[in-house]
């Protein structure tokens, strides 16, 4: 397994995912990890990741010096390379000018890291060239005495360096992003050939490990799970069912704000096909009743969250002998970030979890996805036999249609929105666009707009369509859907749904607009 030290870069988690894609377990820890903690984790090698700061400043983060004294291979990427150079006696030059984008590096010396890797050949020198992605300001100006410069570009003369005997490597570019064509092979060289890690991090193996861990933890006692139909809780349900069968009880709360047919699909998949014990609570009237007259988005979110907790608690109290609460917490929720530690957080994700359950219920937690990234959770889901469409479905917010009906929520609006959303999603699938977008949905606008039907003018509701492409949901671009597709969706919505006279397409990016409309 590999240890990845985070210096605050947005790319750190991506490195961890890439290493895991190779089939090797990796964890992200903050840069100020202690030697004892490293020994306890017992990695085969360490990756020093990137970061937004400058090693030319005294108070910027450094790797613990022991990292270079433990006899382990070390791979510094971007900031990681710079701090490695600086900590081992080299020099880093500060710069306010960023080099950002494609670059072609020339390989200048043999190194295990780039062995047999080449995108092009430099016809003058016969050296190999690699297409890479750069994103840096500072750069290494002088390598430490024992190091060799292994790659260069005209603007970055020390683009890679190594001390082969010690198995220390540094690259200024980003092997973890796909724009670096051979990036995955470079990581494989480090992780497999140089560190000698074994490839045993596979969905089947993860499932087997988790099943035995859950069995150890739970014994013959009972576990409760709030099943939402989302990817994470669905995978937890399938996994726990496999591990402990009838010792698992799921509670599925239908709050009346779900997508079309969603409740039935959840019951069909879990209760009917898999034989999972699922209690379905039809709480539409309760939720809509509590939401009546409330138009403020944050108040709506709170009402939906609190009502969920009430309903869930009430159901849970009816089940006897429950000792554990299962949750679909995933790895990005638990990574301790370097950004938070240096106090210079540049990515802030605050919102959204319902929360509050464990405290009120005094149950011990079962969190079998705690170590997994979303893409790994999905692969596990497929391996566990969940339907592909469920596992690869777009994310859906906890408050559901409650935040997609602007202002006051009414059943009439929710019913119209469900139909419009279903038409949009169906046509995205038909046109092969669903999986090219990261999230797509319809929004209900409670304004009356005019339409002409026959001889008369009719004032009816407006539906907005939203489709975005994003990697991390922190920034997003509106999807450039084909006009024909938008036309078809619009025609179908207006013709098939009574009460809608107009459809619009949202062309705002995030930031400043958010993905949801409320
Ligand atoms: P925004 O609208 O903030 O959305 O750009 C980013 C992502 O978060 C989802 N989202 C929510 N998820 N509860 C949730 O569980 C919420 O209150 C909530 N608000 C937004 C949104 O769907 C998108 O994927």
UniProtKB/TrEMBL annotation:
Q: What class of enzyme is it?
A: ligase
The family database entries (PROSITE patterns) matched by this protein are listed as: GATASE_TYPE_1 (PS51273), GMPS_ATP_PPASE (PS51553)
- The catalytic activity of this protein is classed by the Enzyme Commission as 6.3.5.2
Copy the pathway line from the protein's UniProt record: Purine metabolism; GMP biosynthesis; GMP from XMP (L-Gln route): step 1/1
Q: Its catalytic activity? A: XMP + L-glutamine + ATP + H2O = GMP + L-glutamate + AMP + diphosphate + 2 H(+)
Write out the transmembrane intervals.
Answer: none
Q: Which GO terms describe its molecular function?
A: ATP binding; GMP synthase activity
Annotated residues for binding of ATP: 228-234
GO cellular component labels? cytosol
Record keywords, A-Z: ATP-binding, Glutamine amidotransferase, GMP biosynthesis, Ligase, Nucleotide-binding, Purine biosynthesis
Q: Indicate whether Hydrolase appears among the record's keywords.
A: no
Active-site residues, as the UniProt record annotates them? 78 (nucleophile), 174, 176
Where does the GMPS ATP-PPase domain lie? 201-393
Q: What does this protein do?
A: Catalyzes the synthesis of GMP from XMP.
On assembly, the entry states: Homodimer.
This protein is called: GMP synthase [glutamine-hydrolyzing]
């Amino acid at each position: 397994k590999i240890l990845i030290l985070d210096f605050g870069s947005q790319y750190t988690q991506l490195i961890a995912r890439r290493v895991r894609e190779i089939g090797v377990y990796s964890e992200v820890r903050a840069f100020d990890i202690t030697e004892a903690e490293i020994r306890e984790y017992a990695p085969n090698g360490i990756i020093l990741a990137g970061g937004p700061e400058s090693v030319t400043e005294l108070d910027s983060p450094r790797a613990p010096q022991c990292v270079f004294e433990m006899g382990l291979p070390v791979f510094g990427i971007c900031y990681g390379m710079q701090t490695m150079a600086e900590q081992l006696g080299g020099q880093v030059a500060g710069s306010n000018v960023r080099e950002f984008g494609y670059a072609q590096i020339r390989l200048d010396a043999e190194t295990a890291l780039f062995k047999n890797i080449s995108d092009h050949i430099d016809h003058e020198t016969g050296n190999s060239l690699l297409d890479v992605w750069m994103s840096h300001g500072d750069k290494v100006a002088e390598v430490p005495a024992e190091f060799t410069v292994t790659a260069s570009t005209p603007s970055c003369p020390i683009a890679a360096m190594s001390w082969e005997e010690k198995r220390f490597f540094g690259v200024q570019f980003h092997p973890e992003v796909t724009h670096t064509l051979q990036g995955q092979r470079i990581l494989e060289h480090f992780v497999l050939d140089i560190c000698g890690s074994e490839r045993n991090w596979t969905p089947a193996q993860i499932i087997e490990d988790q099943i035995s861990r859950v069995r150890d933890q739970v014994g013959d006692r009972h576990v409760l799970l709030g099943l939402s139909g989302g990817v994470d809780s669905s995978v937890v349900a399938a996994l726990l069912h496999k591990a402990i069968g009838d010792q698992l009880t799921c509670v599925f709360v239908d709050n009346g704000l779900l997508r079309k047919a969603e409740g039935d699909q959840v019951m069909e998949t879990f209760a009917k096909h898999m034989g999972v014990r699922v209690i379905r609570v039809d709480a539409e009237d309760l939720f809509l009743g509590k939401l009546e007259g409330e138009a403020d988005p944050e108040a709506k979110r709170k009402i939906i969250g609190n009502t969920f907790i009430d309903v869930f608690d009430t159901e849970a109290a009816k089940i006897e002998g429950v000792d554990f609460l299962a949750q679909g917490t995933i790895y990005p929720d638990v990574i301790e970030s370097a950004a938070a530690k240096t106090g210079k957080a540049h990515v802030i994700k605050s919102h959204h979890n319902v929360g509050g359950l464990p405290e009120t219920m005094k149950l011990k937690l079962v969190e079998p996805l705690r170590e997994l990234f979303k893409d790994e959770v999905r692969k596990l889901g497929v391996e566990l036999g969940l339907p592909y469409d469920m596992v690869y479905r777009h994310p859906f917010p906890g408050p559901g249609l409650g935040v997609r009906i602007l202002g006051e929520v009414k059943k009439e609006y929710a019913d119209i929105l469900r139909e419009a959303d279903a038409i949009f999603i169906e046509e995205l699938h038909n046109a092969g666009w669903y999986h090219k977008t990261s999230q797509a949905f319809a929004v209900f606008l409670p304004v009356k707009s005019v339409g002409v039907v026959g001889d008369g003018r009719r004032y009816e509701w407006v539906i907005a369509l939203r489709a975005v492409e994003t990697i991390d949901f922190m920034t997003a671009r509106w999807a450039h859907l084909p006009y024909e597709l938008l036309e078809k969706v619009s025609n179908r919505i207006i013709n098939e749904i009574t009460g809608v006279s107009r459809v619009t397409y949202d062309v705002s990016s995030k930031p400043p607009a958010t993905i949801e409309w409320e």
